[in-house]
Model the fold of this input.
Amino acid sequence: MKTLARAMACLVVAVALQARPAQAAGAFAVGDCGAYGHAIDFPDAAQARAAALANCRGKCRVVATMRRNCAAFAIDSANVCGPHGYATATRLAQAQNTALRVCFQYGGKDCLIRAWACDGAAR
Done:
């Protein structure tokens, strides 16, 4: 009887471990003149980075990877090819505020959030 109980316990643990969701990964890319691309809920960071670059038009670079956090991208609406800022944080509002602050620090006059994304349980 102990052997059956032990076997059942092992089976329950094995099923529980397989049922756990994989850690999702995300990425955010920015480019010239307000271009951006993002990708969320990918199996790993490399795939997320590749997808973010594929979603970004023009010459872009990955500026953030995400794993249960958020990224935000701010541009100067008066000059979309000029100052910009980006940031990541565990909370969306925090990422947006930091991205706006960076945009203003680099000389933006009318900065606004152009895009944002959250991966996993972050919001």
